[in-house]
Amino acid sequence: MVITIKEDGMRFGARAGAIIYNEDKTKVLLENQDNERYMFPGGRIDVHEDSEAAIVRELKEELNLETDLKLKYIVEMFLDSSKTKYHEIGFYYLSTIKESEVKNNFKSLDGDGIFEWTSVSDLENHKILAKPIKDKIVKNEIKNDNLEHLIYSEY
Questions:
Q1: DSSP assignment of 6-75, as one string?
Q2: What is the CATH number of the domain that holds 139?
Q3: Containing structural domain, residue 54
Q4: Beta 127-128 vs 37-39: how paired, if at all?
């Protein structure tokens, strides 16, 4: 059972995600949800599951990928869509892999999306739900693996 609470016009969720760079850090791996929205690989955290176990599970389920991970960001996001105010707490882990480990336009093993390598210089043209992380990557502000807490609000 995933950690999600829904009420009229509101939703809360807990998510684990991965910021996965290629070996020369010129690209990041994104999941294309519907040709409009992109996400960093990952998914919902289950009840009684810690965030690291969740991201390890999600990467295995979606990409058959095992990689070293380091917790980089705890992100509190308050997103406003036309129908729902969404509050998410996200745990985002850093990793670097060889680009060949995940082929471009790889269809998720669980069928939810398509993974694609995206140039860091092209990220600005993608609607990524974890906007504060996207901004950090675009501005080249990820200089180390020290843990940071980010808060982003659209309302």
A1: EETTEEEEEEEEEEEE-TTSSEEEEEESSSSEEE-SEEEPBTT--HHHHHHHHHHHHH------EEEEEE
A2: 3.90.79.10
A3: 4-153
A4: parallel
Please tell me the distance from the alpha carbon of residue 34 to that of residue 112, in angstroms, as a whole number. Answer: 10
Residue type, 76: E
Q: How far apart are the first and last CA of the chain?
A: 29
State the sign of the Cα–Cα–Cα–Cα dihedral 62, 31, 116, 30: negative
* Structure tokens, 128: 């990524």
Query: Phi and psi (nearest 5°) for 150?
Result: -120, 145
Bridge-based pairing state of the strands 42-44 and 70-80: unpaired
pTM comes to: 0.94
Q: pLDDT tens, 111-133? A: 778 999 999 999 999 999 899 99
Determine the length of the chain: 155
Comparing CA positions, the residue from 95, 73, 107, 72 lying closest to residue 23 is 95
Domains: count for the chain = 1
User: Within the chain, what is the greatest distance between any pair of CA atoms?
Assistant: 45
